[in-house]
Amino acid sequence: MGTTLITRRRQPMRSMFDDMFQDLFAPSLQQAERGASLPMNVSETAEAFELAFELPGIDEDAIQVQVDGNQLSVSAERKFEKVEDTDYHRVEHRYGSFARSVSLPRDVRMDDVTATFKNGVLTVTVPKVEPSESKKIEIRTG
Asked: Which ranges constitute the DSSP H helices of 23-131?
């Protein structure tokens, strides 16, 4: 009962933060179909957007990062490796496929996206396009 009350109280805040990034980093509808969602933090500097995904206990070679158009997709799989001659009384670690797709804003350089993996966190850096200088347009007479 206590958990349900806490969850209800957190929903308005979660909805507010989800709405803030809905247009900028909208999750793909395929996300639910492809497996469990990956927790993600989004931050921004003057030069780039950074998306950090939690992937504890997952090997780097089990992670895929892909950019297709303005869609960034991250997927991974964590397999349960049963130790022989061991009786498991409880298994609470998350196993299986994990995925998250987000729409990237238009003002980024898709060809320069990079990814680093350290301490179970995948950080994807999406550089911004350098702002163009304004240009005065001369008006001609007809």
From this structure: 30-34
Query: Is the Cβ–Cβ distance between 51 and 40 less than 8 Å?
Result: yes
What is the Cα–Cα distance from 128 to 113, expressed in whole angstroms?
A: 10
What's the whole-model pTM score? 0.65
Contacts of residues 58-65 at CB distance under 8 Å and 24 or more positions apart, as own/partner, are 58/98, 58/120, 60/117, 63/117, 63/122, 65/113, 65/115, 65/122, 65/124
Q: Say which amino acid occupies 17.
A: F
Tokens 């909805």 sit on residue? 15
pLDDT tens for each residue of 34-85: 446 788 999 999 999 999 999 988 999 999 999 998 899 999 998 888 888 8
CB 119 within 8 A of CB 53: no
C-alpha 97/C-alpha 78 separation (Å) is 7
Burial of 50 (0-12, 13-18, 19+ CB in 10 A): middle
